[in-house]
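Project standup — Tuesday

K.O.: blocked on the structure for the chain from last sprint. Re-posting the sequence here as requested.
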Amino acid sequence: MTFPARILITILFCSAAVMCQSLVELTPEKDSEKLQKEAVAFLRETLTDVNGMRSLENRISFTAELAGLMWFHDEREARSMYGGVIADFKDLLTKYDAQMNELGATMADRQGGGFMSFGLEPTDKSQIVKRFTTAVGVRQQIAMTMAEHDPELAFSFYNDSLSAISNPEFRKEIERQDPYFETQLLTQIAQRDPAKAAQLATVSLKKGVTYQHIDLLKKIYAKNTEKGIEFGAAILSRLKTDKYDSTGYRARENFLSVIEYLIRFGDQRLNESRERGGKRPVYMNAEVRELVELMAQVILSQAENDMAEISNIDLIQKYSPGRASQIRAKFKNSTSRYSSMSNSANAIANTAAYYGGASNANANMSPEKREKLEKEVREAQERQELETRTMEGVQNLPNRELPKEEREKIVAQARGIIMQTPGRDKKIMGLSMLATQVSKAGDKELAKEIMRDAESMVNPSPKNYQDFILTWMLASGYASADPDKAFPLLEETIGRANDTLAAFIKVGEFIDVAEEVIQDGEVQVGAFGGQMVRGLTKELGMADTTIEVLANADFAKTKALTNRFDRAEIRILAKMMVLRAVLDPKKAGKPDAAPDVDVDY
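H.V.: unblocked you, prediction finished:
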């Protein structure tokens, strides 16, 4: 991605220090409650900052994410925030729709991307089409944040928002793209409420049955057998009432592929239901036969020269031998060619397996080479065993009463192993983990000494990407081992980074002739399909544990760190990261958390 903000924020926050996941100490419940209250107050402060942003897309994107976090603590206030987001989004879409109609813009006015596109001067039409496309992407982001809390509200918003688009060409284009994302949205809903997902998915079948509907059927059936059966019946009913267009080769092949996918799923569940303890299948034998009949009718409706091959004759034979005979008789050449191709493929596979096995069996190795190899394997195993024992000892340091000599031996072995590991990043991660465990065991001075070893590997005046990453990793280690050292280190690093950030923005403004990334001096974090806020805060979630440790140590100082950023949009993004790390129950394995669903925007 060429978007500068992604690089900039990654420089500051992307942390490979995943080891911190196991280093967080639990805080007393009263401290946790106090932190939550302070974080909610910080959320409201951040919302005020968001409302001051120039870009409406940015305001919508950030507010939607803040509303999602607020939901965990005040549902009524969160609903109010979502209401404002929906109203603002409809106004934005209506404005762009009117401008496109006024200019007479069409899909052909989209300006192509690519490396050299930055030098192309945009037209009024291409700019408005680009902004409209961005807004449509933001629509997906809003729906996804809502779906985590109120699936019905999310689905309603996603469908109702199209009413703001009067331009028939653009509306048709969005409707063409919607089914895939709609099923992704329904998949997320199914994780929490399979009954609601089945109800909403049945409505979506009006646009036709797709592969995604069958994948959704699998998830609903796995979560709730009865609701899965109900949705399966709705799919069958839709397939029986659909008017199949037999004129297009591509349409026919797609229909046959989808229905075969469904039949194989139904056949598998039916077989499993016959086993002891098996649950009720999605389709009974008669219903699978109905699906097979639909597939057979489509195949038989085609001319012989239209059929390249018939790969699903096995299914038809199993449930409808008569139809299978008819198909074989009509498409004798196709079925025989399919059998011939299958036999040839099997012969080739068997031949390759035979010669491959023979080659391996006949592999020769001299005694000297074999002895050398066996020695290397033994040494590697011994090293691995030593490392495993040492790391287990390190992990257990806080939980065991060890004599000083034994503890020092474990620490010395661990330091030796870590220092032999190639790569400064791995050394810093290892030393940070070791220092944290030593600190938990009560030896603060030794922990500081270990962290000084890590600090000696980091450039005190970071200049490039690697310098900033290593500095962040060092701060991650200090966050657990010695938070008082972490705060000033991060403050200084952010101060230095501001110059780098400003330089990146300048370069961005210089090359961004079309103002796709920077408008009115503000980075469009809501760009690229609305995934920037949601994607970046989730992607940079690797830093959540470190942020959580810092917030528990001193929330006021953690908030102050975010205000060290000069750029307003980056400052708000940093605040979002702090809020997500502290408020989102999906972090740190907190209960009642819905799993994340990856979505392609």
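K.O.: great, moving the ticket to review. Residues 1-30, 335-362, 528-542, 588-601 have pLDDT under 50 and may be disordered. The beta strands are 518-519, 522-523.
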